[in-house]
Amino acid sequence: MKGRSKDPARSASAVRPKKALGQHFLTDQGVARAIVDALHSRGSVLEVGPGTGVLTQYLLQDPAIGLKVVEIDGESVRYLLEHFPQLAPSLYEADFLKMDLTRLFPASFAIIGNFPYNISSQIFFKVLDVRERVPEVVCMIQKEVAERLAAGPGSKTYGILSVLLQAWYDIEYLFTVGEGAFLPPPKVKSAVIRLTRGSRERLGCDEELFKRVVKTAFNQRRKTIRNSLKPILSTLPSLPAYIPYLDARPEQLSVDEFIELTLALQPR
């Protein structure tokens, strides 16, 4: 196998696997560099979906980063091994959503990537499953999704994943990426966000009930909490003497207020 290309930035963007047809590849090297620079963590880093290595090339340049990559597409894997042979021991041809991350990383690790837009929400739920080991996530996703995740209470875009992620992470909307940064250009704008693990170690309430309350409330977000939570309230042996925020709408409640609501509903 031949060594690494003398110009990795050019090779990673100028030559692509055949699967590029119908796909949208990041080709703007300035954007790629900015995404990598936004990652504060060093040590163990997992890149999700490296594709042709547009981020990988810059991550490999930092000796303080112990990089592992996971790519589900076999053609991209072959491309990466050809252009970045040093990845061979740490490249996993696998479905990130099905990986046992606790076995792959016995200690903490950061995550970076241009997330596939159609499964970005599933990736974030996977991150939540291992949040104790993931101090930071830097990723590019669809702009509308990024705005939703970073939105606060009172925003029309504030929703289920906003609350569930913000319970554990501080979320920063870093910058917007225009269509011209990709080849071929997509029909939507993209954005880069950073998730940094917050100080909260426990919710202080039943976590499964918390998730159920948040999801049930936002499934009928135009209704008040009193009406949207009827499926949960109807299952309680007896209603608590006081349930807070019944006359509010879900997008008005902060993470702490959803925790308070959950505490009022959980069995004593």
Main traits of this protein?
Rossmann fold; 12 helices; alpha/beta; 268 residues; Helicase, Ruva Protein, domain 3; 7-stranded mixed beta sheet; two-stranded antiparallel ribbon; 2 domains; 34% helix
Fold blueprint:
Layout (H helix, E strand, L loop, with lengths): L7 H7 L10 E2 L2 H9 L5 E6 L7 H4 L5 E7 L2 H10 L7 E3 L7 H4 L5 E5 L5 H10 L6 E7 H8 L9 H7 L2 E9 L4 E2 L6 E8 L9 H13 L5 H4 L1 H4 L21 H11 L3
Parallel strand pairs: 2-3, 2-5, 3-4, 5-6
Antiparallel strand pairs: 1-8, 6-9, 7-9
Structure description:
- With 268 residues, this protein is an alpha/beta fold.
- The chain has helices at 8-14, 29-37, 56-59, 74-83, 101-104, 120-129, 143-150, 160-166, 207-219, 225-228, 230-233, 255-265; strands spanning 25-26, 43-48, 65-71, 91-93, 110-114, 136-142, 169-177, 182-183, 190-197.
